[in-house]
TrEMBL record:
Annotated localization: Cell membrane; Membrane
Domain ABC transmembrane type-2: 43-285
Keyword terms: Antibiotic resistance, Cell membrane, Membrane, Transmembrane, Transmembrane helix, Transport
Topology with respect to the bilayer: Multi-pass membrane protein
Source organism (scientific name): Actinotalea lenta
Main location: membrane
Protein name: Transport permease protein
Sequence similarity: Belongs to the ABC-2 integral membrane protein family.
């Protein structure tokens, strides 16, 4: 009698579940994508990086003829290039963060790019993290180029104390972060990508003229100083003046102080307000797309 034996086969191994990368890893990957897209727009790259250097050269040349200096009577004075450098650093931060975000996101929304991204598994936090990362990298490159040009072309002296470099670091980082989130929030204001530049650029220009970027701040009308104090650019420029100008330059500040506490408070306030407004108002679709 033949005995039949049944052979059993092992069940197939359970398929391993595919894990999504962490939000931090996705944000880093998105940062690389944003930087590649940014550097492919050569006209934008040239404008963002060259604009502060060109403006510094113009003002240093026009106002600094015959060795003219900035400063109250009885002070040694500083060269115009030295005085205008803080304003150029501040306006560079504004261009790289607020203006860049407000216009580029409006264009991406108008072209349908945000709608497509919203339909992917990538969390929104990774998208915004990529935006912040790309702005920080581009702003740091811009700052390095500006300081290099200021020292080699215009003889500007850089800070020699660690305290001043620390002030430069926290004002730069806090100003960049505040400008970025405010730019994200403001990107919902333009009705289309085509109108974004027409809406954003005039605001940036007005702030530059009223915040001590193009003119000596203490020589602006009192009402203009008061109004500019409501916006972050004035505080970024003032913080940068405390880095690059000598101690006696406090005489040219309306409050007689660098007001580091107020600078940190205003920029932190704009950072929080920008985050809240961005969450409440940000749109992934065009206005006519539901």
């Amino acid at each position: 009698m033949t005995t039949l034996t049944r052979t059993t086969t092992s069940a197939p191994a359970a398929t391993r579940s595919t894990r999504m990368p962490s939000t931090a890893a996705l944000a880093l990957a998105r940062t690389r994508v944003e930087l590649l897209q940014f550097f492919r727009e050569r006209d934008a790259v040239v404008f963002v990086f060259a604009y502060p250097i060109i403006m510094l050269g113009i003002f240093a040349t026009v106002f600094g003829q015959d060795g003219a200096t900035v400063g109250p009577q009885g002070s040694p004075g500083v060269a115009f290039a030295q005085y205008f450098l803080p304003g150029m650093v501040a306006t560079g931060v504004l261009l790289s963060s607020f203006q860049n975000m407000a216009t580029s996101i409006a264009v991406e929304r108008d072209e349908g790019g945000l709608k497509r991204l919203r339909g992917t598994p990538m969390p929104p936090a990774a998208y915004f993290g990529g935006k912040v990362g790309s702005v920080l990298v581009s702003s740091l490159i811009q700052l390095t180029l500006l300081l290099g040009a200021a020292t080699t072309m215009f003889g500007v002296e850089l800070p020699t104390s660690a305290d001043r470099w620390w002030t430069l670091a926290w004002v730069f980082l806090l100003g960049t972060a505040a400008g970025t989130v405010c730019g994200v929030a403001f990107s919902s204001v333009p009705r289309s990508g085509r109108s974004a530049s027409a809406v954003v650029v005039p605001i940036v220009l007005v702030l530059q003229f009223t915040s001590g970027v193009f003119f000596q701040f203490d020589q602006l009308p009192g009402w203009m100083q008061t109004v500019s104090g409501l916006f972050p650019l004035k505080w970024i420029a003032q913080g940068m003046r405390s880095v690059f100008l000598p101690d006696w330059a406090l005489q040219m500040e309306p409050g007689g102080s660098w007001q580091h506490g107020a600078t940190a408070g205003v920029l932190a306030g704009y950072l929080v307000a920008g985050l809240v407004l961005g969450v409440l108002t940000f749109r992934w679709r065009r206005r006519d797309d539901g």
